[in-house]
């Protein structure tokens, strides 16, 4: 029985096969006449063109999906300020996915691509940092105050705790239909949560042992000999600081009245119940619901510094903050910590935060 087999399936040649074919062509040329040499070189040239065409298609296919992914990685790195990680990931992607097909096409092309990539990295350093970091303060979207240790120590830190209850009470305060009693209660609840977050790892404590119903237990208490000073800026600060005593076991409250000229937006102090000098090591919560232009809060902190309070001994509690106030604070009080429910983008010509929540004092007390 004779089985007739068809021609073997044609296989795509790689670089090794091309080299072997070239060598065979040279050997054939040495033993054949000029016409045979021409035919051999023609066959080799045809096969080589097919290989180059195939590899170019592969390279183009790789580039079509590799470059958008690399761009996405770089965008992610710039946005989240992890540029070094993004550059590293992009380089790995380009080196592992883009360069191999180029290498198979042509070594000169590989060399050119590598030099171009290196030049791009040298001439295009990591992009400028976001505005809020360049302004001198850092926004920390975390409720864990222990994360302060991982951030630079001499810049002002702005904490925006991501607690859903904080977002809830901010939403209640924003609603123009919220009646006065509910508005004031929402302000008090928001202040309670913000002071709870701000007091992490900051309160003075004492340790000891007590007898529980079952055995001796090691315990830790808030030290009542070092009360936290609460300085609400009237009027709206009273509502935000209303529940301070329910959060902090030992407090002293010092009222500070500051009004703002509606035309010049400059602050005027009309009531000052601060002591002449605070005890050494005192900790102070300055409570001002609206950090808009920054005039009021800067005036209040200046009074505290005149009475012996360092930037790191006071924390600002606010419902809503805006960039103009935060910029002033970061310039004058490096190392200060600000806790706010939300940061709004801008302030209008009348000094009100947009979108904000209106006049906090008027809405809290109806006058």
UniProtKB/TrEMBL annotation:
This is uracil phosphoribosyltransferase. SUPFAM superfamilies: PRTase-like. Its cofactor is Mg(2+). Belongs to the UPRTase family. Keywords: Allosteric enzyme, Glycosyltransferase, GTP-binding, Nucleotide-binding, Transferase. Residues 160-367 form the Phosphoribosyltransferase domain. GO terms for biological process: cellular response to phosphate starvation; developmental process; UMP salvage; uracil salvage. Pathway: Pyrimidine metabolism; UMP biosynthesis via salvage pathway; UMP from uracil: step 1/1. GO terms for molecular function: GTP binding; uracil phosphoribosyltransferase activity. NCBIfam families: PRK00129.1 (NF001097), upp (TIGR01091). Its EC number is 2.4.2.9. InterPro entries: PRTase-like (IPR029057), PRTase_dom (IPR000836), UPRT (IPR005765), UPRTase/APRTase (IPR050054). It comes from the Eukaryota. GO terms for cellular component: plastid. It comes from Corchorus capsularis (Jute).
């Amino acid at each position: 029985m004779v089985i007739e087999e068809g021609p073997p399936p044609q296989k795509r040649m790689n670089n090794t096969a091309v080299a072997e074919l070239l060598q065979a062509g040279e050997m054939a040329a040495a033993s054949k006449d000029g016409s045979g040499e021409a035919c051999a070189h023609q066959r080799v040239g045809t096969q080589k063109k097919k290989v180059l065409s195939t590899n170019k298609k592969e390279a183009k296919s790789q580039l079509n999906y590799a470059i958008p992914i690399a761009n996405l990685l770089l965008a992610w790195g710039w946005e989240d300020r992890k540029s070094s990680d993004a550059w590293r990931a992009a380089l790995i992607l380009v080196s592992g996915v883009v360069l191999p097909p180029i290498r198979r096409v042509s070594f000169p092309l590989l060399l050119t691509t590598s030099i171009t990539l290196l030049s791009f990295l040298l001439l295009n350093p990591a992009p400028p940092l976001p505005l809020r970091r360049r302004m001198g303060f850092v926004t920390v979207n975390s409720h864990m105050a222990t994360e302060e240790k991982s951030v630079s120590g001499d810049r002002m830190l702005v904490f925006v705790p991501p607690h859903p209850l904080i977002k809830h009470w901010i939403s209640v305060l924003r609603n123009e239909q919220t009646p006065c009693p509910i508005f004031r209660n929402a302000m008090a609840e928001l202040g309670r949560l913000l002071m709870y977050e701000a007091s992490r790892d900051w309160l003075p404590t004492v340790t000891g042992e007590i007898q529980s119903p079952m055995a001796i237990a090691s315990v830790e208490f808030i030290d009542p000999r070092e009360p936290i000073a609460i300085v609400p800026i009237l009027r709206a600060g009273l509502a935000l600081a209303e529940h301070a005593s329910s959060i902090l076991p030992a407090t002293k409250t010092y009222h500070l009245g500051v009004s703002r000229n509606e035309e010049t937006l400059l602050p005027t102090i009309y009531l000052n119940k601060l002591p002449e000098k605070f005890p050494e090591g005192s900790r102070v919560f300055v409570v001002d619901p609206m950090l808009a232009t920054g005039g009021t809060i800067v005036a209040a902190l200046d009074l505290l510094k005149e009475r012996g309070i360092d930037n790191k001994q006071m924390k600002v509690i606010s419902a809503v903050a805006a960039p103009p106030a935060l910029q002033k604070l970061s310039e004058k009080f490096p190392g200060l910590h600000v806790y706010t429910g939300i940061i709004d983008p801008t302030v209008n010509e009348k000094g009100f935060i947009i979108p904000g929540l209106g006049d906090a004092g008027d809405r809290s007390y109806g006058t």
